[in-house]
Design brief:
Layout lengths: L3 H25 L14 H10 L1 H19 L1 H24 L4 H24 L8 H42 L2
Helix pairs in contact: 1-2, 1-3, 2-3, 2-6, 3-4, 4-5, 5-6
């Protein structure tokens, strides 16, 4: 993952994956209560941080939030951003400073995502009663965090392998031409 073009290509693939998963989650899981999602769209953000770098992960996260705003409205975009920025900060802090499992990493991020959304809800409504929704968000975040952590655990090695093999194919094809 050295060349700039490979970084851009992988970043684009991770962004596209995140946007597709975000749209699918909205369509398939629309029966869930407000603000609750499985969180699969966040897996490409985590992969971007781990396989490319932190700025790439931040860019994927920001563009995903902008996509949410475009497709679901301003309020959904603001809620997505507030949760995502909290989750991203915790994710980067934990990945850089600890050796926690992917499930713990994802679960902590999911809980912070929910907390960020509830805080934004309180700001947007001007009501402290919004914090009454926190238990629902924490429980759903624990469940979704475990699920996305398991997905991350299995997709990270595959992503790293694909990136490594793309580099090997790229290097071997250069010599033959």
């Amino acid at each position: 993952m050295k060349t700039r073009s490979r970084i851009i290509a992988l970043s684009g693939l991770l962004l596209a994956s995140s946007l597709i998963l975000s749209a699918l989650e909205s369509a398939v899981f629309s029966f869930l209560p407000a603000g609750i999602r499985i969180g699969l769209a966040n897996v490409p953000v985590m992969l971007a941080v781990m396989v490319v770098n932190t700025p790439c992960g931040l860019a994927v996260m920001m563009l995903k939030c902008f996509f949410v705003m475009l497709t679901r409205g301003f309020t959904a975009g603001v809620m997505s951003f507030s949760g995502s920025i909290c989750a991203f900060a915790v994710y980067v802090l934990l990945i850089r400073r600890t050796k926690v499992s992917y499930v713990m990493l994802s679960t902590a991020s999911a809980v912070m995502h929910g907390a960020g959304q509830v805080c934004m809800l309180a700001v947007m409504t001007g009501r402290a009663s919004a914090f009454g929704y926190m238990p629902v968000m924490v429980i759903s975040s624990l469940i979704s965090g475990v699920f996305t952590g398991i997905v991350l655990r299995y997709t990270l090695p595959l992503t790293e392998k694909a990136v490594a093999s793309a580099g090997e194919n790229n290097n071997s094809s250069k010599g033959g031409r």
